[in-house]
Specification:
alpha/beta, 2 domains, 6-stranded mixed beta sheet, 14 strands, Rossmann fold, Hypothetical Protein, Haloacid Dehalogenase-like Hydrolase, Chain: A, domain 2
């Protein structure tokens, strides 16, 4: 087999590796497993919690750690636990909870193995949480001393998700890593008008995966392929040697991509993996 130019591949989940039914295309699945056998490090890098990521990791059947919570944590399939985590300080968490309370925003604090949410007040908010696993409904005061890796706000009072993020960062005035998007961009929430703002401790976002590969396996960023479709994928797309955006990507991802692939319901990732890692 010819010498390869890359040694690792990073994969976003929603809109990238999995379709709307959370399934990996058979051709892509076979190609990724074959590449792993050849020594390629195959890693998931997602904004999902570890609980929501585990089923896809198990479907993939590859034992490399997965970056979860947009870079705030690393979940190991072999050890069945987080092997890295960054948590929000008590001071920052208090300011975030106050922000949500003062503006009347449904708030979710996410920890390892469980999520704590303020009670939904209408059908839109109940629907927003319907896919979340291990949710417990509590008063905001119960969240104050949590080891939270993310606080998520749902807004129906802002015009754009950018506005939620800008107002939050100004009000909280602490080092944070913030991502945001309209909930309607997710497959199971197409009709939702809610806006989502996710707040994490300071980190490099999904580019934490490149740091892990370099530190643990001496894989330099220029020898990494990253594939994604949204704004929260930009840190890893720009840091990787080859950043690929899906054909169904949002403008932020398309703007920084070195290459544009097909859509997430096709075997386009499998074709790329075959081209880069499996051809003789």
């Amino acid at each position: 087999m010819r010498a390869r130019n890359y040694d690792a591949i990073l994969l976003d989940l929603d809109g990238t590796l999995v379709d709307e039914s959370d399934r990996i295309h058979p051709h892509t699945l076979a190609a990724l497993r074959a590449a792993s056998v050849q020594g390629v490090r195959v890693m998931i890098a997602t904004g999902r919690s570890e609980l929501a990521t585990i089923p896809v990791v198990e479907q993939l059947g590859i034992a490399h750690p997965a970056v979860v919570f947009n870079g705030a944590a690393l979940w190991c399939p072999s050890k069945r636990r987080l092997i890295e985590e960054r948590v929000l300080s008590e001071r920052t968490l208090g300011r975030l909870l106050r922000f949500g309370l003062e503006r009347g925003l449904m708030t979710v604090a996410m920890c390892e193995g469980i999520k704590y949410a303020t009670s939904p007040r209408n059908d839109a908010e109940w629907s927003a949480l319907r896919d979340m696993t291990a949710v417990e409904y509590v008063e905001p005061e119960r969240m104050q001393r949590l080891r939270a890796m993310r606080v998520t706000f749902f807004s129906d009072v802002h015009a754009r998700s950018d506005d939620v993020a800008a107002e939050l960062e100004s009000a909280v005035n602490q080092p944070l890593y913030v991502t945001h998007f309209p909930l309607g961009c997710l497959p199971h929430h197409r009709d939702s008008k809610l806006l989502v703002c996710d707040v994490h401790p300071p980190c490099r976002g999904k580019a934490e995966a490149l740091r892990w590969l370099l530190d643990e396996h001496a894989v330099a960023p220029q020898r990494v392929v990253a594939i994604g479709d949204a704004g929260n994928d930009v840190p890893m797309l720009t840091a990787a040697g080859l950043g690929c955006a899906m054909g169904n990507s949002y403008p932020e991802a398309l703007a920084v991509a070195d290459r544009v692939l097909g859509t997430c319901d096709s075997g386009t990732i499998g074709e790329l993996v075959t081209e880069l890692f499996l051809q003789a």
